[in-house]
Design a protein that fits this description.
The protein is of the alpha+beta class. The chain has one domain: Electron Transport, Fmn-binding Protein, Chain A (Pnp Oxidase, Chain A, Roll), CATH 2.30.110. It has four helices and seven strands; from the N terminus they run αββββαββαβα. The relative contact order is 0.19. The model has no long low-confidence stretch (mean pLDDT 96).
Length: 141
């Protein structure tokens, strides 16, 4: 899963807003920090951060757009803005080319992981067939 997250450049984080409705926000910085913790950077995420400070429950969905496979992670997020762990994660992002201003880091204590798999696999299509289908689709946009 760590390698999968390192390869994917976009995921979605769902939090619970003040009026108990879902808030879905795209994130391009989701990584596995250790075996039980994911992290993402707060670059332009004021609502996500506000929601997590009020209610830490969240879900993260990351799917490979060509293979139509991925993972859903459930857990609790905590926001950090200073300290050794913040600096270590910030250094990691800088070494990997993230140049944007990072306001805070969200640590996600993952308590559940499930696979996300396209129904196309139920039709008997192979991974390579699905990949080719979507490569052609995106090439023609």
């Amino acid at each position: 899963m760590k390698q999968f997250l390192d390869q994917q450049k976009l995921g979605y984080v769902a939090t619970i807003s003040e009026n108990n409705t879902p808030n879905l926000s795209p994130k391009g910085t989701i990584i596995a920090w250790d075996d039980k913790t994911l992290v993402f950077a707060d670059i332009h995420s004021p609502n996500t951060i506000k929601n997590l400070e009020r209610n830490p429950h969240l879900e993260i969905n990351v799917v490979d757009p060509l293979l139509r496979r991925g993972y859903r992670f459930s857990g609790k997020g905590s926001v950090i803005k200073t300290g050794g762990e913040f600096e270590a994660i910030l250094t990691h992002y800088r070494k990997n080319g993230i140049r944007s201003q990072i306001n805070s880091i969200v640590l996600v204590d993952v308590d559940k992981v499930s696979q996300v798999i396209s129904p196309l696999y139920d039709l008997g299509l192979s991974e390579s067939e699905i990949k080719e289908k979507w490569k052609k689709y995106f090439a023609n946009l």
